[in-house]
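Need tokens for this chain, all 310 residues.
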Amino acid sequence: MIFGEHAVVYGYPCIVTAVDQRVHVTIHETANNYFHVQAPDLNTPQYKKLRTQLGSQEIPKAVSFLEMCYKRFLDKFPQKFGVHVVTKSDFSATFGFGSSSAVTVAFAKALSSLYNIPFTNQELFDLCYQAVLDVQGVGSGFDIAAAIWGGTLYYVKPAKIIEVLTMDPLPLIVGYTGIKADTATIVREVEKKRNMNKKNIEHIFFEIENLTNSAKHAIQAKNWKYVGELMDQNEKYLENLEVQSKELDEMVALAKTHGALGAKLSGAGKGDCMIALSDQVHANTITDSLKKIHGGTLTVQTSAEGARLE
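Here are the structure tokens for all 310 residues:
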């Protein structure tokens, strides 16, 4: 997420970019009636459930999105047999970098290929977004859109507006706090604040919308100095929402001290990742400084390609 955290949940726009570390899902049909998942990278070496029990009983968090996606798929496209699913990730799911949405999108695309049911991007989005809502109850779907369409997107939920701003990488450095945040819990905390003081929180969201719209044009024009200024403004509004953490504050401040054009948290907050925008002169210095604290840095390319069959 580049701009628009939390406001996006309430129908305001955001800007999100896909990263190049990928999740791979392989599936084949089986001769039994089971949903069988092997996901060692999600700390789930083996998971097996009868298809008649999908969505019921206890569901491990790591496979909950896959299970609900499969259930929704079967509700619409009934099949005779079960499936065996294997997932492999290029990066750790602990980073809070949209891995749940990415694996759900990859799984849904694999299902469409296995059963020769061609999905448009919008149909793929609808299936995956409903699965996320089934599991979390809340969510804007921006990470699903990024996984499907790829690139850097201007997005309004639920895929009401999706505009690809660029497929060129953004000059971003990503820092990791070392803390895995619970997105759904943080979103509900902001919702509670909004219910208690709607006028004030809506004003914050309105200002975030304005700077997100400005950032849209600045990114297209590659006016990185202005994009950085807008990132700093966005960060101040997120501070007002009280979704910061000591670790995020320290990493943002360190990046700014070493010459970042702008820096802010990325995502729900309270942990996970931050991003810094840099020119070429300061990029190595910023990266080296962030490597030394908390979870260090993540090596990613932005504006990556979306979901694909291999």
